């Protein structure tokens, strides 16, 4: 990192994390340029009919999980939250996962051991997640940490309710949005938020915020900042 002309941090919290590394103390070459997305992929997308695809009743709510099956993404927290919801007699729901790899085998065994297999559907990694996000009643993002949290931006741009954790990067993304925020690592807190959303959905608020999210998270302004940084670095090299 010290040998680099510049280190690109994709969020302010990512820059803080980099500066906390033992070998990066006092490092001055870290530049914060927020990550961004192609918002057209998450604008007015027709939802895939997941209920018909998997024989899910029309009165069953769809809770989306998108991401790798790794400890960082908090999937087991979501499993434990599902168990809490069932114990409470919450409205009918199914967790629809979109991802692959990591510890998917072990996580599947874990939820099966808790008697929850019928409450989870595994759709695998989706090359184009827009229609799948649009099909969800709510997306849960129980991450323990993130550098930026692209999924949160995608969900907010899609106009779909989001439940995210209070890790710093997600707090940055969800600030001012209608997303519900829960304590990272807490199955009870996640269950509370899911139960509230399943009972009283915030779809209207999410749709109202979507245009604001698309303006915030479009990659175009960020790409211009990155191009400016590259131009500056090239010019500095030429001078030396």
* Estimated share of beta-strand residues: 5-15%
SSE order, one letter for each helix or strand: EHEHEHEHEHEHEHEHHH
Overall mean pLDDT = 95
Main sheet specs: 6 strands, parallel
How many domains, as an integer?
1
CATH class: Alpha Beta
Description:
It is a single chain. With about 240 residues, the chain is an alpha/beta fold. It has a single domain (about 40-215), classed as Glycogen Phosphorylase B (Rossmann fold). The protein has helices at about 10-20, 50-55, 75-90, 105-115, 130-135, 150-160, 170-175, 185-200, 205-215, 220-240; strands at about 5-10, 30, 60-65, 95-100, 120, 140, 160-165, 180. The strands form 2 sheets. It has a 6-stranded parallel sheet, with helices on both faces. The protein has a two-stranded parallel ribbon with strand order 1-2. α1 (about 10-20) links the parallel β1 and β2 (about 30). α3 (about 75-90) packs across α8 (about 185-200) and α6 crosses α9. The longest helix has 21 residues, at about 220-240. The model has no long low-confidence stretch (mean pLDDT about 95).
Spell out the blueprint of helices and strands.
Layout: E1 7-9, H1 12-19, E2 30-32, H2 50-54, E3 61-66, H3 75-88, E4 93-98, H4 104-113, E5 120-122, H5 130-134, E6 138-141, H6 150-158, E7 162-165, H7 168-174, E8 180-182, H8 187-199, H9 203-217, H10 219-239
């Amino acid at each position: 990192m010290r040998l680099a002309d510049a280190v690109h941090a994709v969020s302010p919290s990512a820059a803080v994390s980099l500066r906390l590394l033992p070998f990066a103390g006092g490092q001055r070459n870290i530049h914060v340029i927020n990550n961004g997305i192609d918002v057209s992929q998450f604008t007015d997308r027709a939802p895939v009919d997941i209920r018909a695809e998997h024989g899910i009743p029309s009165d069953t709510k769809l809770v989306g999980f998108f991401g790798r099956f790794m400890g960082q993404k908090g999937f087991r927290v979501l499993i434990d939250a599902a168990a809490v919801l069932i114990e409470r007699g919450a409205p009918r729901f199914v967790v629809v996962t979109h991802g692959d790899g990591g510890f998917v085998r072990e996580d599947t065994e874990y939820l099966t051991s808790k008697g929850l297999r019928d409450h989870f559907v595994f759709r695998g990694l989706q090359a184009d997640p827009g229609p799948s996000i649009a099909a969800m009643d709510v997306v849960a993002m129980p991450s323990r940490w993130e550098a930026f949290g692209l999924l949160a931006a995608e969900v907010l741009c899609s106009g779909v309710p989001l439940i995210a954790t209070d890790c710093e990067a997600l707090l940055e993304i969800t600030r001012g949005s209608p997303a519900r925020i829960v304590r990272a690592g807490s199955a009870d807190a996640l269950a509370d938020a899911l139960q509230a959303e399943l009972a009283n959905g915030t779809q209207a608020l999410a749709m109202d915020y979507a245009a604001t999210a698309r303006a915030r998270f479009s990659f175009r302004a960020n790409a211009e900042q990155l191009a400016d940084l590259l131009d500056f670095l090239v010019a500095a090299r030429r001078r030396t």
